[in-house]
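Following up on my earlier message about serine. Here are the inputs again, as you asked, copied directly from the submission form:
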Amino acid sequence: MRKPVALITGANGEIGHGLVDHLCGRDDLDLIAIDLNPFAPEIEHRLTAGLVGDIVDVSLLERLVSEYEIHEIYHLAALLSTRAEYTPARAHQVNVEGTLNLLQLAHDQAQWHGNPVKFLFPSSIAAYGFPDRATKAKHGRVSEIEYNFPTTMYGCNKLYCEHLGRYFTSHYRQLAADRTSTGVDFRALRFPGLISAISMPSGGTSDYAPEMIHAAARGEPYACFVDHEATLPFMAMPDGVKALIDFAAADASRLAQRVYNVTSFSRTAGEIRDRVLEDFPNADITFSPDPPRAAIVDSWPADVDDTPARNDWGWSPDYDAARAFDEYLVPKIREFYERGD
Ligand code: SER
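Thanks, got it. Here's what our run produced:
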């Protein structure tokens, strides 16, 4: 008998750290993971199995299904927006082909065991694209269907994969004579910039906020690559994990959409610096904008409308900006560096 499991891809990444903690406590499903890099010890000991490899490698996925019966997939593996601009073809391969492989796997698994396979997909504010800062400022909060004109490879990949997920759930092989329900239950969350106290992002463009805070805690100078006025929505990592868990648990009949915005607080880079200085008064934070990266930030919304998530499945962040800094970021970051991690 194959074991019923939940699968996490990219488990070593920032979201993976918190999500593994939550999922490993479940008694209905064991937890298995794939990551390109060897698993961090605090993750590995919580897994039933961890495979080091590439989601683009179909033989790796075949090995997985020969041993495990997959009921839920948390597909976190991706190349983030800045890194993807340096290797767009590789980003497309990982972000799109990897997702396609996993959607196919979800479909095949549902056919085998006869139950739906939940497919949780972190999408992003990168799925949006404003032409310039003035348009962004004029528009304010965006709904899921506005300004879907991403300017980055990563944003294009995320937006397309949202559509692929919808296709696999509702329209897969729509012309086949033997067409049956696919069993894929795809759910995507468009996250704002996520800020973790215990890990550093790598290769993103919203990274200036976490980089600023972590540099201050380490006592290192930081030159921010956007100017004071650049604005993005952000969320503390525990809320990011909570959003995924709550969304996965939501009754399918309550979900009027497959893709939902979620957010917590919007701030300018200058406001974030000022807040960091309250706790780290000696922090040396300067602004030295890098125009191409700053333009990516200007193409992303300053705020998103997450009313549908609030109405349909009860989304509400635990951490507004004040709580995020006072009760999560500052104490946890201090603890993290005092421990010398
Ligand atoms: N944080 C991501 C990035 O900056 C956006 O989803 O690429």
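One observation from looking it over: The chain has one domain: 78-339. Hope that helps, and feel free to reply on this thread.
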